[in-house]
Structure formats: C-alpha cells, structure tokens
C-alpha cells in the first residue's frame, strides 16, 4: 500500500465531498470524519411509497487507501430490516463488490443504496426472513422495519453505550 495511493484517495474524496455538497439530490448526505477523510458517516432517507418511507438510516463508509480502484466498505449503523442487509449492517449490493468501478463515487453509491431500500434483490438475500416477507408482501414487513429502526434509535440515544 503506497502512500501515493492514499494521497490520491484523499484528493478524490475531497472532490467527491464538494460534488455531494453541490448536488441537489434529496434523501442522501455524507461527511468525512474530522480526523480521517477515509472514514465517512452518511444518511439515507427511505423513499416515499416504500416500507422505509419517513425513516433515516445512518451508514458508515470506510474507504481503502487505493480508492477508487477498490470499493468502500459500507455498513448500516442504524439497524435495517431488509433482504440485502444482515444483522451486522453488512450490505449485499453488487456495486460494493464484484461490479465496483472507479466511475462510482460517494453520491452514486448512496443513491444506489437508497434505491435498494425500495427495490431489494431477493435473489441474493442476507436476511432470509426479510426476503420471504418482502416476496409475500407480508403486511407485517413494515412493522418489522419500524421495530428494528426504533431499537436502533433507542440504542443510539443511550449515553452509556
């Protein structure tokens, strides 16, 4: 891991931050950690007309030193009941794995994740219960989404955590 790679990643992320701040995209935001531009916190809003409508989800993005040649590691911090999200917040999304390309950036990654909330890929679920409920259009799916989201907000509000 050459320091040149890390410097290039930092420059690229600074540009991406400016692009994101200038964009008019609704429902997404992200900012780097004050001490490390390779670590970001992001927020995506659930899209209208989906079980996630009205909910905000916090995510962590950790960029490798060879970014954008390799994808960031993205995880949900806020618990998310979703076919493509496991209990640890890991996400199954092709552009974060084998379909990654250097043309993707923070903005397109967040827009893709926001889209994934309303359009899961049930062919490769990480959460089989959520996948089954989604496929059956189970009326309790939204209740489970709200329950898990509320549990996360309770944990985040706990000062002893």
UniProtKB/TrEMBL annotation:
It holds the Pfam family UQ_con. Residues 8-154 form the UBC core domain. PROSITE patterns: UBC_1, UBC_2. The active site is at 92 (glycyl thioester intermediate). Coiled coil: none annotated. SUPFAM superfamilies: UBC-like. This is UBC core domain-containing protein. Belongs to the ubiquitin-conjugating enzyme family. Keywords: ATP-binding, Nucleotide-binding, Transferase, Ubl conjugation pathway. GO terms for molecular function: ATP binding; transferase activity. The lineage of its organism: Eukaryota, Cryptophyceae, Pyrenomonadales, Geminigeraceae, Guillardia. It comes from Guillardia theta (strain CCMP2712) (Cryptophyte). InterPro entries: Ub_conjugating_enzyme, UBC, UBQ-conjugating_AS, UBQ-conjugating_enzyme/RWD.
